[in-house]
Design goal:
It contains 3 helices and no strands. By secondary structure, the protein is mainly alpha-helical. It has one domain.
Length: 109
Amino acid sequence: MKSKELLKSSIVVKKHEFHVKNLEEDLENQARGIEADMEDLVGVKVDQEQKVIRVEENLIKDAWLLMSSKFPRGQCVLPAILLVEFSTNANAVAPCPKTLMAHKKITAT
């Protein structure tokens, strides 16, 4: 009698071990998918930040060209004010560490 119960218990344990192994594999697959999604999101964020920087630089250049064409040299202070404003705003928003790492990887290549 005890050997039958032991055999049944052993079978149940094997089934549970198999189920646990499958669950662990599913979790690992989900984790890989989440990591890939995060890498994609970081890449998109870096691209957007680079676009913002380019737009800010172009705005400063355009303002400089506009103001320098309308005012004699030395009387144009708007581009300097804009430059200070943009650099202050850019420094106020610190990117997350993952974004910085991704940006360093992109700019290093």
